[in-house]
Specification:
- By secondary structure, the chain is mainly alpha-helical.
- Among the domains are: 32 residues; 37 residues.
């Protein structure tokens, strides 16, 4: 479906019929038969009871492993870029601290004159 821009001076435009693209017939994909694996067996009840107190430590270990993998993926900035951004933040903070201080002095002077 085509989109046409219509201007006030243009005559109504009839949309052109869409071209039909014929796809080549698909070849049937060969199906692979997988050997049915047995579902994972549950551990016996007494083993699950013995291992239950260890679950928080296992989860904590998984968390630290995943965190370490994520930290290794991070692209850390180089020293030059870090100093450049640090300088930008310091300048930004100093600029706005100056503006806020000047406004504070101005509004303080106005308020003192109104109170007197």
């Amino acid at each position: 479906m085509a989109v046409h821009r219509i201007k006030a001076k243009d005559a109504p435009v009839k949309p052109k019929p869409a071209k039909v693209v014929k796809k080549p017939p698909e070849k049937p994909k060969p199906t692979k038969t997988k050997a049915k694996s047995e579902p994972a067996k549950k551990r016996p009840l007494f083993v699950r009871i013995l291992l239950a107190p260890l679950k928080p430590f296992v989860a904590l270990g998984r968390y630290f492993r995943a965190s370490w993998r994520e930290i290794r993926r991070v692209v850390w900035p180089n020293r030059k870029f870090t100093w450049k951004m640090t300088l930008a933040v310091v300048i930004f903070v100093a600029f706005f601290a100056t503006i806020i201080s000047l406004l504070d002095i101005l509004f303080g002077a106005i308020l003192n004159n109104l109170i007197k």
